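Below is how a single chain appears once it has passed through the pipeline. First comes the sequence as given, then the structure the pipeline wrote out for it. We keep one example in the README because the format questions we get most often are answered faster by looking than by reading.
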Amino acid sequence: MELLYFIICLLASIILTPFVKKIALKYRITDKPNERKIHTAAMPRLGGLAIYISFIIGLVLFRPDDPNMIYMIIGSLIILATGILDDIFDLAPRYKLLGQLLAAGVAVSGGFDLEFINLPFGGQLEFGIFSVPITILWIVGITNAINLIDGLDGLAAGVSSIALITVSFLAFMMGDTFVLAIALTLLGSTLGFLVYNFHPAKIFMGDTGALFLGYMIALLSLLGFKNVTFFSLVIPVIILGVPISDTFFAIIRRIIHNKPLTAPDQLHLHHCLLDSGFSHRQAVLLIYGVAVLFSLAAVIFSMATVWGSLLLIVVLLIGIEIFVEVVGLVSKDYKPLLRIIGIKQNDRRIDRKRA
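Resulting structure:
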C-alpha cells in the first residue's frame, strides 16, 4: 500500500511542477544570476510548492492515524510559508531563522523531542532540560544543511531522495509503517520534481523546497531513531553525511577566516568540485555517489556490533577528513592529515635511499 502512495505522489509532482513553474514565471518569482550563483539566466523558483502539494495529496489518501501528524503538518506549513516568503522577498537571515525556530517549536510541542539515549556500554543519558534545545538545534541544523547544498541543479532534491530511500529501508526493517509511509510519500513527491530539476534544470525548488525537505527529514529521523541508543542516534547523522559535513566545514571555514556564520561564499562542496574541473553534471553525480556511500554505511552501521560500529565511525571520520582536504572544503591550504601522510611517505623514501 505504501508503494501505491509513492507512485501517486510521484505522478502528482510530475504533473504539478510545470503549473508551479508557470506561476513562478507569471509573478516573476525567479532566481536571478549573480557572482555567487552558478546559473547565468533567471530561473523560476518556488518548485518546492509542487513537492509540498504532492506530499499533502499523499497524506489525504494515506490518512495516517498518528498523534504526531497534526504537529508535523502545522510545522511544515510554517516552514513552507517561510520558504515562500524568502523566495519572493529574499528575507533577512534572522527572519528565516525565526520561521525555522517556530516550526521546530511546534514539532517539539507535539512530541518530537530527544529525551534520552541508552549508552553503548550500559547506563542511560538523560537530557533533561536540554532535551528541547537539543531537539530544536537538530531540526534547525538539518533544515539549513539541506538548504545550503541547494547550489547545483538537482543536488538538494537528489541528496534528499537518497536520504529518504535509506530512511524508508530502515523503517521497513524496523517495522515502522508510519515512518515508512511518510518517507515514501515524500520521496515520490521529491523524485517527481527532480524530473524537471536535474541538469539542465527547468525550475529550482528554492527555499520553499529546501527548507521543507530539510524540516521533514529532520522530523522523520527523530521519529525513526529517537530514544534508543547512542548508535541509533548516529544513524541519521550518517545518512545525512553530505549536507551535515558541508555545513560543519562551512562553519569551521568561516570561523578560521573571521567571517559571520551567515556570510555566503563559494567554497561549498559543489563549488570546490566545479573549481577542480568537474562539469556541472559530474559534480552532482559525484556528490550523489558520496551520499549513497554514506547511506550504505548507515545500513551497515545499523546491523553492526558495538565495536564494529565504533570502527565504522573512525573509518568514516578519517575518510571525510581526507576528502575535505583533497577538495579544499575548508581552504586550499588546509591539509593536516595529507601533510602527515606526505611526511611519512617522504621519511620512507629517505630510508630507502639510505638503505
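The beta strands are 30-31, 43-44, 116-118, 124-126.

See the next section for the split statistics.
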